[in-house]
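Two proteins follow. First one:
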Amino acid sequence: MSVTLKINGETRTLDADPDSPLLWALRDELKLTGTKFGCGIASCGACTVHLDGMPIRSCQTMVGDVEDAEITTIEGIDGKAAEAVQAAWQELDVPQCGYCQSGQIMAATALLSETRKPTDEDIDFAMDGNVCRCATYARIRKAIHLASDKMEG
């Protein structure tokens, strides 16, 4: 069945079952492999993408439910918040294994797009459900604060 999606600013038509997870359309059909499979039950955040600017779990979002939305993956993320987050991540050397980082970056970018100067509580709430097996949570929080400062300056 044919499904049309707007991904990273480009309209793409896929041969996909509308009841299949968006994650598999991104990875298998479009070869956008920056979005990772982690748990398959929307509990780890590795598959986070933006749907109309809001972070969602693509492993539990069906392709047929997002045909009229703007989907942004880690490959297409841009703007002031995204640039600041990516720069802070590099400056503080946040990742260890890196597997969860695309989801972490997508969640952090969404937070800073909405809340320019987040508190620790804001960060904890926004990042809740993004699991890092390497436990880099302190560096992630510090990087979000640094990204916020970079956006101001």
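Second one, unrelated to the first:
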Amino acid sequence: MWKLGDLWMSYVKEILALLREKEYKLTPQRKIIIQAFFDNMEKHLSAEDVFNIVSQDHPEIGLATVYRTLDLLAELGILKKMNFGDNKFRYEFCPEKDNHHHHHLICLNCNKVIEFEDDLLESLEALIAKRIGFHVVDHQLKVFGFCKNCKENLQDI
């Protein structure tokens, strides 16, 4: 049974429909890995993070299975695969109906990732696309610096 609120049940149905449409099964391992993302919505999980989460209750799920599942879910557009400059790919849900982009502030000291939304970038993107005649399908904004806690602890900043 899925452990999540009503808000996400429609998204679960979309995931199930997409897997069926592409002729993939919702295996117990895939369900457990997807559940790990639902349980950690506020985080951007790496394959190792997911493995550490799922292996606590399901030691039979190996790291290779986690990698294959994450690659599949990213290929299907269920997860978004991102690189925050720490030599690890991280993943987050990307509901198709959520056309609003969010952006990431990445602390260079503690690697904390803070999400923020700002419509200004979307307006700039539309203006540039119109001016140049470029069809934008996606964008990512990553801002690197120091979070409030690290900034207070670092004297050179």
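SUMMARY FIELD: Residues 128 and 134 are 8 Å apart (CA to CA). Strands lie at 45-46, 79-83, 89-93, 103-107, 113-116, 142-145.
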